[in-house]
Design a protein that fits this description.
Order of helices and strands: HHHEEHHHHEEHH
Low-confidence stretches: 1-10, 24-33, 476-492
Number of helices: 9
Number of strands: 4
Strand content: 5-15%
Largest sheet: 4 strands, antiparallel
Strand order of the largest sheet: 1-2-3-4
Shape: elongated
Mean pLDDT: 85
Length: 492
């Protein structure tokens, strides 16, 4: 009978285990019931209810209250101000820097002793002399102290690594600000340049419409043919098409500037016109000075240098892990006896000095030292690479600014010559001397000269912005260009 009961119990146990195993298999192995995967490789995964947290409400982006009075004529500093207030890139970099600052505090805490205060209740049955036993119940507070006295500078190296990481994060925050400024400057000058091109085309349209009127008058007077009128109308239609294209392009770059400011593309705003009285060549900075400034102040280069110092400190920390450590421990406890009753309370204390030496760990610490040494060399190589890139970028930007400044002067001379040629050709045509082809050619040359002069001004401002960015400036670029360096002087 007893064997039968045991057999039934064993069978029941096996059945329960089988059911439990089947339940686990259906819970963890079945693709159809597992919310972490899709049911098949060709089927997209659908998140179960509650698997995806609700998105945070979007931030309301708008022109700040203190700038709304200038919304129809925003200057570049005001546009940059709006962008920096709204930019998620600068916020992200700032919060990363704050997290790095908190990390320094976390690691500095390891330099101080750790004191814990708690309470305990213990109850157990203990044996006494003569085979008797009794229940003992105690309770009371407990204070413990742990303090690492000496570790060959490992903790301080850890703190220094965190401090250098904080410096790198702060420089990267500056880099984010600098990138936002460049992005806004580029969009700002592109918008101004497109507006100026549109105004130049509208001026061209007025002039070709005047030429069309002159062609009509000459045809009515019998000194011109219908061909002159048709050619003039073709010129008018071509410029109207250019205006329509530029109007569409203007809306596109306007939306790009709004996006750079962190504003909706349909928000009503405008900026001032492209400056016409630019005077390139008013500074005395040579390319060598600009390169020196870039190597000393570019946030990305400085961040890389700080990261290299953090890697060096991390190497010192890893090396210290293979050296002995000396620690202190202490505890203080106050006991009250609930059982047996009547026993007076007592104080218990203890203290210890602990010496530890990592004798053997299978080569783990040695491998960590090799890894930290490799990471340090990687960081140093990255610094060298960034310094070379910075030098090359400044050199290219410097040449670009000089070329853009020369293009302004050349384009202005070309524009003046084209205006004079168009004026003389127009007077000859109205006087019945010149041909419509000569007039349209002069008009086309003038239109191209106007566009080139506008583009030269916009390109110079864009080149200055890029140069300011690549030399480490955090503000808008000045409206002046660098003068030739000593190595450039004397060259054509």
């Amino acid at each position: 009978m007893r064997m039968r009961v045991w057999g039934m119990a064993a069978a029941a146990t096996v059945a329960v285990m089988a059911l439990w195993t089947a339940g686990c298999a259906s819970t963890f192995s079945s693709p159809g019931l597992d919310p972490a995967t899709s049911p098949a490789a060709a089927v997209p995964w659908t998140p179960p209810p509650g698997a995806v947290p609700l998105a945070a409400p979007p931030r309301t982006m708008e022109i700040p209250e203190d700038l709304r009075a200038h919304v129809s004529d925003l200057s570049l500093p005001q546009v940059v101000d709006v962008a920096l207030r709204n930019s998620p890139f600068t916020r992200e970099a700032w919060w990363r820097a704050r997290a790095a600052a908190a990390e320094v505090g976390i690691r500095q805490a390891d330099l101080f002793p750790e004191i814990d205060l708690g309470a305990e209740v213990q109850s157990g049955r203990q044996a006494a002399a003569g085979g008797q036993s009794f229940t003992r119940t105690t309770y009371g507070p407990v204070a413990t102290l742990n303090y690492l006295l000496f570790d060959f500078g490992g903790r301080r190296a850890d703190v220094e690594a965190a401090r250098q990481a904080l410096i790198a994060a702060d420089f990267l925050h500056n880099q984010a600000i600098q990138d936002v400024v460049l992005r806004v400057e580029t969009a700002y000058y592109e918008y101004q340049g497109t507006k100026a091109l549109l105004e130049a085309e509208r001026t061209n349209l007025k002039e070709v419409e005047t030429n069309l009127g002159a062609a009509d008058e000459r045809r009515r007077a019998g000194v011109a043919t219908i061909t002159d009128v048709l050619q003039a109308r073709t010129s008018v239609a071509q410029i109207q098409l250019n205006i329509e294209t530029l109007e569409g392009q203007l809306q596109s770059v306007r939306g790009g500037l709004a996006a750079a400011m962190g504003l909706p593309a349909n928000l009503p705003y405008d900026v001032g016109p492209l400056p016409a009285d630019l005077t390139p060549g008013t500074t005395t900075e040579a390319v060598e000075e600009l390169i020196t400034r870039a190597l000393a102040g570019r946030p990305d280069v400085e961040a890389a240098r700080a990261e290299a110092l953090a890697a060096a400190s991390d190497l010192a920390r890893v090396r210290a892990e293979a050296l002995p450590r000396l620690s202190a421990q202490a505890s203080l406890e106050r006991l009250w006896f609930a059982r047996p009753g009547g026993v007076p309370a007592s104080n218990l204390y203890s203290g210890a000095l602990l010496f530890s030496y990592p004798l053997f760990d299978g080569g783990r610490r040695a491998s960590r030292v090799q890894q930290a040494e490799a990471d340090l060399e990687v960081s140093r190589s990255r610094v060298e690479s960034l310094e070379r890139d910075a030098t090359l970028q400044v050199w290219i930007d410097y040449a670009g600014v000089r070329t853009a400044a020369q293009r302004i002067e050349t384009s202005r001379a070309l524009l003046a010559s084209a205006e004079e040629s168009e004026r003389a050709t127009s007077e000859r045509y109205r006087a019945g001397v010149g041909s419509i082809l000569d007039l349209l050619t002069a008009q086309s040359t003038l239109a191209a000269a106007r566009a080139q002069e506008v583009q030269a001004r916009a390109d110079w401002l864009l080149a200055l912005s890029q140069l300011a960015h690549d030399t480490g400036s955090l503000g808008p670029a000045p409206t002046s260009s660098p003068s030739p360096s000593p190595s450039d002087r004397g060259q054509p």
